[in-house]
Amino acid sequence: MIMTDSPYLLELKEEIHRHKLQDMAQIFKALADTTRLKIMYALVHKEELCVKDVAQFIGSSTATASHHLLYLKEHHIASSTRRGKQIFYRIADAHIEQLIQIAEIHSKEQ
């Protein structure tokens, strides 16, 4: 007996394809790293931090902090602004901020 997908499942498969699940997975992958999540947590609560402050906050070198921040920026999770010799980072948009806040609330309910 050959099984075929129901119309509902076909529609769902098309919808998944349109929403680019791979892109969504990349966001969660980026946030799955404890250090990067710690950075994002700080940015939710402080709005903007320079690389030196991020390094101090996560207890690393500025090179390590820069590496994590660049990863977040490349995945459109953080954005940056240069002011003189310093680069300041912030959350890229409200959706990312909401994800962090929801995760924080959810983890407190556990």
Features:
single chain, three-stranded antiparallel sheet, 6 helices, alpha+beta, Arc Repressor Mutant, subunit A, 110 residues
Q: List SSEs in N-to-C order.
A: HHHEHHEEH
Strand order of the largest sheet: 1-3-2
CATH architecture: Orthogonal Bundle
- Low-pLDDT stretches: none
Number of helices: 6
Write the CATH fold name. Answer: Arc Repressor Mutant, subunit A
Shape: elongated
User: Mind telling me the CATH superfamily name?
Assistant: Winged helix-like DNA-binding domain superfamily/Winged helix DNA-binding domain
Report the strand count: 3
Radius of gyration, in Å, reads 18 Å
The secondary-structure class comes to: alpha+beta
Mean pLDDT over all positions = 91
Return the CATH class: Mainly Alpha
- Oligomeric state of the chains in view: single chain
Q: What is the total number of structural domains?
A: 1
Q: Residue share in helices?
A: 55-70%
| Fraction in beta strands | 5-15%
Query: What is the rounded distance between the termini?
Result: 45 Å
The major beta sheet can be summarized as: 3 strands, antiparallel
Would you write up a description of this structure?
With 110 residues, the chain is of the alpha+beta class. The chain has a single domain (18-109), classed as Winged helix-like DNA-binding domain superfamily/Winged helix DNA-binding domain (Arc Repressor Mutant, subunit A). It contains six helices and three strands. It has a three-stranded antiparallel β-sheet with strand order 1-3-2. Strand 2 (78-83) and strand 3 (86-91) form a beta hairpin. Helix 4 crosses helix 5. It is elongated.
